[in-house]
Amino acid sequence: MTLLASVLGVDEAWLAVGQSGVPDKQKKIRNATADGAVNLLAGLIQMDGAHPSFPSDNDRKAANHKIDLHAIIKGALYNFHVSLGQQSNRGWLFSIPVEALSETVIIGVMSIGNLQHHFVELDAEGIEAVGKRKGGTVEVLLPNDEVDWNLRRITSFAERL
User: Fold this and answer.
1) How far apart are CA 91 and CA 54, in angstroms?
2) What SS3 class is residue 69?
3) How far is CA 136 from CA 2, 98, 120, in A?
4) What pLDDT score does 33 carry?
5) Phi and psi at residue 143, in whole multiples of 5°?
6) For residue range 26-80, what is the model confidence (pLDDT) as tens digits?
7) Strands across the sheet with 69-73, in order?
8) What is the bridge-based pairing of β-strands 91-97 and 132-134?
9) Which of 106, 125, 127, 151 could form a disulfide with 131 if both were Cys (CB 3.0 to 4.6 A apart)?
């Protein structure tokens, strides 16, 4: 089954049980950009004098809660899940795993071009209130009009969040 899924370019779970799968090529591209957002966040945290670290491969809590990054900022420990927003004509769409809604601070990253990015804290209550469940994720759409955002924009990691 693994070989057949590879040949067809589909997810093995989809082939086995018929649930929606993403072609392997798209997964690799998506993972590379998502990993870039995590690395960008880690770099900015470190540049502001805080201490980021990546979860180890055998960290069950990180795996269970989709924690991408740990950080100590001014003595406080944070567990971050990083969600890279996809821009559309309607706004910014974030897809957040349901498991990340507890035990994590969810950071939305928006790449606005010319090496500029916005960072927002997507709180679990707000996600549950406005998000739409889609399988194992919750999709949150932030409209293009920033006035409607009831979010905390992050401009520095030099202070506690």
Assistant:
1) 30
2) strand
3) 22, 6, 22
4) 52
5) -65, 160
6) 444 444 455 889 999 999 999 999 999 998 888 899 999 999 999 999 999 999 9
7) 51-53, 69-73, 76-84, 105-113, 116-122, 152-154
8) unpaired
9) 127
Q: Which residues pair with 72 in a beta bridge?
A: 51, 77
Determine the Cα–Cα distance for residues 18 and 91; give it in Å rounded to an integer: 31
* Alpha carbons 115 and 133: distance in angstroms, whole number: 31
Residues 48-68, buried b or exposed e (16+ Cβ, 10 A)? Answer: eebebeebeeeeeebeebbbb
3-state secondary structure of 23: coil
Q: Where are the domains of the chain?
A: 31-154
Q: Which of 99, 144, 104 is nearest to 122 (CA)?
A: 104
Name the token pair of 76: 């406080």
CA 71, chain centre distance (Å): 15
Cα separation, 10 vs 158, whole angstroms: 43
The hierarchical CATH code for the domain 31-154 is 3.40.1350.10
What residue type is assigned to position 17 of the chain?
Answer: V
